[in-house]
Amino acid sequence: MIFFQPRFVLKERNDIIMKKIITIIFMVVLFLLFSVSAFAASRDKVVDVSLSASSLIISPGQTVILTASTKKHGSSFTDLWENTLNQNTFFDRETGTYISTSEFTAQIPGTYTIIYNISMHAGKSDTSFTGGSQIVIEVKADNPPSVIGADIRNLVFEDITDSTGRLLGCSATGDIYILYSDNTSVYYESIFVFMNSTEYTKSIRASILIDQNLYDFDLQLVR
User: Fold this and answer.
1) How far apart are CA 168 and CA 19, in angstroms?
2) Helix (H) or strand (E) holding 196
3) Longest Cα separation, the chain
């Protein structure tokens, strides 16, 4: 006697088999993707880069010499400096390193970040070796000279008499100059002082305001 299974049973079995096949294919694809990614990642190596500067603090217009050193890997390389000029890279056979030099200069005070990157390649294995480093250079304005004193110059004395010709005293006019630590001087203001007939010297106090700083100096007038 021959028994026939209903069609809906056969269809259900076929659906189950098809789902299993799809699941297996999906798992195989995932495995291959992860394997390729892991293999590709294993071919990228990170290397150390030593970066130094001839000076970390400079004045506007001065030049810094930068040097980057990287142990050689692979058979070829490319490198790049950011924010610098006059790049030069060579291979030092004695140390087995790539030496790269560059220059930095700036006219505006501030902090500047210098970045160096290098990528080396091994042709046969298609392996890459990458590295980078950065350093901060500060450009500081020259310290302005400080105020160290004051002086009276261009003094002129003029006698003052009454209607009978009797000497009452004299007037003194002159110019106050500010003295700086770099041996320079700058005109500040003019003065007018009266001295009586018995005075041959006179002390005055000069109050000088510079950049919101107040300086007081005792000055002498001598006839």
Assistant:
1) 124
2) strand 185-196
3) 165
Residue 1: helix, strand or coil by DSSP?
Answer: coil
Are β-strands 127-139 and 57-58 bridged in parallel, bridged antiparallel, or unpaired? parallel
Tell me if 118 sits within 8 A of 77, measured CB to CB. yes
Co-location of 78 and 123 in the same domain: yes
Domain membership of residue 39 (yes or no) is no
Each residue of 118-166: pLDDT tens digit? Answer: 999 987 777 899 999 999 999 988 777 889 999 999 999 999 999 998 9
CA distance 191 to 173: 6
Statement to judge: residues 128 and 194 lie in one domain: no
* Nearest 10 degrees: Cα torsion 21, 27, 29, 34: -170
pTM exceeding the 0.70 threshold for the entire prediction: no
Rounded distance between C-alpha atoms, residue 104 and residue 62, angstroms: 8
CB 49 within 8 A of CB 133: yes
Chain CA centroid to CA 48, Å: 23
**For residue 172, with 0-12 CB atoms within 10 Å meaning exposed, 13-18 middle and 19 or more buried, which class applies?**
buried
79: which strand partners? 118
Judge if 2 and 51 occupy the same domain.
no
Q: Coil, helix or strand for 223?
A: coil
